[in-house]
Amino acid sequence: MNAVLSTLIRGGKGGVFRCHAEVSDKALDAAAPAGLRVEKIGLQGARDKNAFLKAVAKPLRFPDYFGHNWDAFYDCLIDLEHEGGEGILVLLREASGFARAEPEEFAAAVDSLQDAVDFWDEDGKMLLVIVELEAPVLAPDLPEISPRPA
Question: Which residues pair with 38 in a beta bridge?
């Protein structure tokens, strides 16, 4: 996992990826030399859109006026502060519950994240999102960065 993540970071292009194993802090160490801020967000209690948006708003430092809808989510993502660095790596831990409970809302979240990645890429910065999921079926269209569990 460390080598895969390091390769992604060195590539300099953002993206939204799924991972079927827990991403270790050691694997995330590759982000610092590349100038990426790392935000780890626990989604273990998020089972719907509102819980997801609430879970991401605080660690990503969304403004108080954040509207808790997908358009506002995208707007806040493109306005994220990268503190003078090259970008941000967002790790969405334990996202399976949300993906299973509300697959359409989960897909909307992923679409917003991918649109924000595209915006950041055009701006020459990296937004790299890793979504920890138990199984590929929860997000089959997302590229995988970890081997499937045996």
Answer: 89
